[in-house]
């Protein structure tokens, strides 16, 4: 499995790694399973969980490549009772990308493309088995969407710009209106490598049958110097979940200290204000934990805590609306993961 083909497993990026003249392929998989305990007690508080189960496959030949990705999801949702064959865990198609690099500094893609802002957020955080990126958890960005995209890179990769046109409905819904989302992402590496990166993002979009506004603007700065990685990001939305009046603002900051062989520790704080002028609409989420890694395997213990509007505690029996806590003991393994973009270059 060549490094060029492994590079196809990453998000759309330029320059696209040119595969050998003959076809080559790459496969990656990441699975995490564990046991969790939640407080306060509101029902089923102890359960086995599958926080991460994803498989990706890629093929490449010369400047052409393709990528497909599948994830295991609970068909009835984690809180539902109507699903497939009960509430069976079923495979969901999340990625189906066709790629072409007509020039060493240009890459284009079409199909079910990974959302560029969400992909960058996950790369900055780096621990999807612990928690999905803030932009995904808050509903600000989907995992993927039908559309087309193009990425241009300067020689050496210090500056990279991308433009994506998409349906705006995400992977799970078909197009609901005649409007298309337009998103732009600028990625700057001042040091010419992944040690320091700055990202700016904007999206003009609509969603639903009524073409409800669904705009975004955000920024992120990330730093990596082994064994430490850290990031901070902020995003503002105009319209969310089909509500044109919603204008939430969100921020996230986190860091990981990780040795390839040995102990690891992580921490992350997410903040979401549903109504910018109302401090009582704040929601905080904290993720802290640690573990031991041996190669691609990680055994960890993670704590997550959520605190919402303090007024929620005034509602009889609504303690869980005011705050919730969870401990999860998990085992995570990842094989065939794509290299860091600095290594791929």
Write structural notes for this entry:
This protein has a single domain (94-344), classed as Porin. Mean pLDDT is 87; it is low at 312-317 and 339-345. The protein has helices at 3-7, 116-125, 134-137, 319-322, 341-344; strands at residues 24-39, 46-61, 64-74, 89-103, 106-114, 144-153, 159-166, 181-188, 196-204, 206-207, 212-213, 215-225, 228-238, 249-258, 261-273, 282-294, 297-307, 323-335. The chain is mainly beta. It has a 16-stranded antiparallel β-barrel. A two-stranded antiparallel ribbon has the order 10-11. The chain contains 5 helices and 18 strands. The protein is globular and about 55 Å long.
Task: Write down the overall geometry.
Answer: globular
- Percent of residues in β-strands: over 45%
Q: Could you estimate the helical fraction of the residues in percent?
A: under 10%
Summarize model confidence as the mean pLDDT.
Answer: 87
Question: What's the β-strand tally?
Answer: 18
DSSP summary: helix tally = 5
CATH class membership: Mainly Beta
CATH superfamily: Porin
Q: Would you identify the regions where 5 or more consecutive residues have pLDDT less than 50? A: 312-317, 339-345
CA-atom Rg in angstroms:
20 Å
**How many discrete domains?**
1
């Amino acid at each position: 499995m060549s490094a060029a083909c492994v590079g196809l497993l990453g998000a759309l990026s330029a320059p696209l790694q040119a595969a050998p003249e003959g076809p080559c392929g790459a496969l990656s998989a990441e699975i995490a399973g564990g046991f969790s305990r939640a407080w306060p007690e509101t029902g089923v508080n102890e359960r086995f969980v599958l926080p991460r189960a994803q498989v990706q496959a890629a093929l490449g030949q010369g400047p052409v490549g393709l990528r497909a990705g599948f994830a295991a999801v609970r068909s009835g949702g984690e809180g539902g009772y109507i699903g497939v064959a009960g509430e069976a865990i079923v495979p969901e198609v999340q990625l189906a990308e066709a790629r072409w690099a007509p020039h060493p500094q240009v890459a284009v893609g079409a199909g079910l493309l990974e959302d560029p802002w969400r992909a960058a957020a996950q790369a900055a955080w780096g621990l999807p088995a612990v928690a999905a990126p803030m932009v995904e958890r808050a509903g600000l960005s989907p995992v993927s969407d039908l559309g087309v995209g193009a990425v241009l890179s300067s020689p050496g990769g210090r500056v990279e710009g991308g433009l994506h046109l998409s349906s705006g409905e995400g992977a799970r819904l078909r197009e609901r209106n005649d409007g298309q989302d337009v998103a732009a992402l600028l990625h700057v590496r001042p040091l010419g490598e992944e040690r320091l990166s700055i990202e700016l993002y904007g999206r003009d979009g609509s969603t639903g049958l009524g073409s409800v506004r669904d705009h975004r603007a955000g920024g992120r700065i990330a730093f990596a110097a082994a064994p430490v990685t850290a990031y901070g990001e902020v995003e503002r939305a105009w319209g969310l979940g089909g509500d044109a009046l919603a204008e939430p603002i969100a921020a996230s900051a986190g860091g990981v200290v990780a040795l390839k062989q040995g102990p690891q520790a992580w921490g992350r704080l997410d903040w979401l204000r549903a109504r910018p002028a109302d401090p009582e609409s704040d929601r905080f989420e904290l993720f802290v934990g640690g573990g031991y890694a041996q190669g691609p395997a990680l055994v960890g213990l993670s704590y997550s805590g959520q605190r919402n509007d303090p007024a929620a505690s005034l509602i009889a029996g609504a303690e869980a609306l005011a705050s919730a806590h969870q401990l999860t003991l998990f085992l995570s393994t990842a094989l065939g993961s794509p290299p860091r973009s600095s290594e791929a270059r």
